[in-house]
Amino acid sequence: MKPVPLPTPDTQEWFDRIDAGELTVPRCTACASFFLHPRSSCPRCGARAVELIPAAGTGVLLSFVVNHRAPAGFEAPYALGVVALAEGPRLTGIVRTDAPDRLEVDAPVRVAFEERGERRVVCFELKEAGR
Ligand SMILES: [Zn+2]
To answer: Helices then strands (H, E): number in the chain?
Structure first.
């Protein structure tokens, strides 16, 4: 069984919206900076004024590993990537591809969701030209 997130009070709404198929990015209403992971105060200015903004759903692959020895519940090979979202913050997730050994840094990706029981987790797909 693949792991599922265990929300905290600070991350509950963010995960609930992922369960509803919407990725949001927390933004400070005082200094306008985006950040991840979700927390109740801004990591830049400390203001306790945070709102969740719907993400554009696109990003760029900054780094990745291809795992050829999968843990329980996973099917090897699969790629785990660090993505810079269009809003700026970075998010880690599985990059869906039929050819993980052909992934490249800087590849454009789009956000997708993987069903895990009653929850969803964020993953990424390669954004092909023209799609
Ligand atoms: Zn701030």
So the answer is: 1, 7
